[in-house]
Design brief:
Order of helices and strands: HHHH
Largest sheet: none
Radius of gyration: 19 Å
Strand content: under 5%
Number of strands: 0
Number of helices: 4
Helix content: 25-40%
Structural class: mainly alpha
Low-confidence stretches: none
Distance between the termini: 34 Å
Oligomer: single chain
Length: about 100
């Protein structure tokens, strides 16, 4: 549990990845500075966009409305597979999500 990140990013301690809080992680955006450079922006997203711990010290999962769509060509070209019922679902424009 505490050795995966340190094995991948040598020179960092387990506490650098969770602000010395194994169950819950960092409680402030400033803790992101302890991470390797390539992980700092994703960590900051948790506080900026997701607004981690902004409301009374808690953040619930954001409300998301899921719907099935046709598999984008960008994925089916990689996988070589298209679901048999794919045509029953609406197409999306992948560029509009970029």
């Amino acid at each position: 549990f505490t050795s995966g990140c340190t094995a991948q990013f040598s020179g960092y301690s387990s506490g650098d990845f969770d602000c010395d809080n194994n169950y819950g992680g960092c409680n402030a955006k400033s803790g992101c500075a302890r991470l390797p450079q390539e992980l700092q922006k994703p960590c900051e997203w948790r506080y900026d966009w997701y607004q981690w711990l902004m409301k009374d010290g808690q953040t619930n999962n954001p409300y998301v409305n899921f719907r099935r769509v046709q598999c984008p060509r960008e994925l089916t070209e990689i996988s070589g597979s298209v679901p048999l019922d794919d045509a029953k679902f609406p197409k999306i424009n992948v560029e509009s999500y970029a």
